[in-house]
Amino acid sequence: MDNAFTAFFRKNSDYPTFRSKKDNQYFIIPQYVEGSGNRLVIPMFKEGIRFRDKHQIPEPIDQIIITRQVNRYYASIYYESDDKPQKGDQKNGIDVGLKVFATLSDGIQVKNPRHLNSVEKRIKKQQQKLARKEKGSNNRKKQIIRIEKLYQELSDKRTDFLHKVSTAITKLSDTIVMESLNIQGMMQNHHLAKAIADVSWYRFKQMLQYKSEWNNIDFIEIGMWEASSRTCSRCGWINHELKLSDRMFICKSCGLEIDRDLNAAINIRNIGLIKVGLDRPEFTPVEIATSAELFNRRDLRDVGQ
């Protein structure tokens, strides 16, 4: 309250008001927190609050943050860990897209699960019901909760998918290279805005960044204007006539025929390694054939599970 009034008198904010029940509710417990079996013991709740998770509560706990989303409560636990970082031995470039969510430079592909398609019709139907409810009525409040649960289901599906994929990639890699994206600019395309919002590229990149830091993995980001899609990953020839509809990259200089996304992922990896002064790995015709085979038969979702 003191901070709120101080900001008001300095003309940095409006007059303080009570927090609305409609806002995201949260509070921080900075100390005196411990776990007891399947219960979380905090001040004022000495008998403990039952929780559901596949992991045991670690000890000691520095602090926890309690948040509420729709009709569920979450406890974010902060603690120090002595776990040794896990990392692979691959240097992976990642090319993201809409048809294929992500393509790695070693040939692994991750299909786009299109989570929005699974709940969009149900959300639309429930919103039509909401429009017929009387404003201020209890039935309208109940209907709002039903819609919020559907959006929560959509968010849970996206989060689960992104965590599985980002964790699998960090376990495979010792270096990750990714291309920066102008997502706000791409969202201006109203034909693709919904699909771009559904794939959550920016959140995916954030997960890769902090998981790379946890596991002592190098995360490299290259500029969005690098000609990664139009450049041959073998000889460097640039195809200025390449269209978005072209799914195969055919080099007129060395004769390389390779999937467009795989070619871009290899170039992203090479550009990132050169950027930080590391040697560019050689990609021989034999490796190209092997990567193309992997691209056709492997799916990273199997690794994530």
Verbal overview:
There is one protein chain. The protein has 305 residues and is an alpha+beta fold. It has 2 domains: 2-78, no CATH class; 90-304, no CATH class. It contains 9 helices and 13 strands. The chain has helices spanning 2-9, 115-131, 138-172, 183-186, 193-199, 201-214, 260-275, 285-297, 300-304, and strands at 26-29, 34-36, 39-42, 45-50, 63-69, 72-78, 90-96, 100-104, 109-111, 173-179, 218-222, 248-250, 257-259. The strands form 4 sheets. It has a 5-stranded mixed beta sheet. Strands 1-5-6 form a 3-stranded antiparallel beta sheet, with no helix packed on it. A hairpin with a 2-residue loop joins β2 and β3. α2 runs antiparallel to α3. The longest helix is centred in the middle third of the chain and has 35 residues, at 138-172. Residues 284-305 have low confidence and may be disordered.
Summary, kept brief:
With 305 residues, the chain is of the alpha+beta class.
What order do the helices and strands come in, and which of them pair?
Blueprint: H1 2-9, E1 26-29, E2 34-36, E3 39-42, E4 45-50, E5 63-69, E6 72-78, E7 90-96, E8 100-104, E9 109-111, H2 115-131, H3 138-172, E10 173-179, H4 183-186, H5 193-199, H6 201-214, E11 218-222, E12 248-250, E13 257-259, H7 260-275, H8 285-297, H9 300-304
Parallel strand pairs: 7-10, 10-11
Antiparallel strand pairs: 1-5, 2-3, 3-4, 5-6, 7-8, 8-9, 12-13
